[in-house]
Automatic annotation (TrEMBL):
It comes from Parahaliea maris. Gene3D superfamilies: 3.10.450.50. InterPro entries: NTF2-like_dom_sf, SnoaL-like. This is Nuclear transport factor 2 family protein. Residues 6-129 form the SnoaL-like domain. It comes from the Bacteria. Signal peptide: none annotated.
Amino acid sequence: MDPRLQALLDKQAITELVMAYCNAADRHDNEKMRSLYHEDAIDEHGQFFEGDAMAFIDALPGIQENMLILHHNVTTLNIVLDGNRAEGEVYIIAFHQVQGEDGPMDVLIGGRYFDKYERRDGVWKYSHRAVVADWVKVDDPTTVNLEHPMIEGSRIGKPKQADPSYDFFDIFQWGKGPHEYRP
């Protein structure tokens, strides 16, 4: 195969991995999250966790417990390949609505993920992910209004399998990473 075509295929697989991470985080789909990391991967998530990625995923239910809304958006993706290894600097804007003692507050974070990926047995997964915060905006109390007339009649996103996407989609499934959809 032309090496340029292989590079495109590899970068597409890594891009799908990054996007699947956002979906897994936002839906609290920890089964899918687990499928995105190699078993010996490392995750550095600031104050929330630093260490073995599988232990991070085991800790996610407690971390996510007060997260009423998570909404990750990838804005810029820089990927470099080196055979079965790759690195990525992924720019994100992530909205968090967090239940505090006095009610919900909004945390909007602009940051980056520093990623290391490895292809093992033909599948790209994370081998190391580190979170970097570049800026943050906090609204306490929340300014989110999911009952505003502008969104009346719209489906409202929710964590876990209560999200309307799981009723809408036939193919896109809970707990399934992007490598599991390939022929």
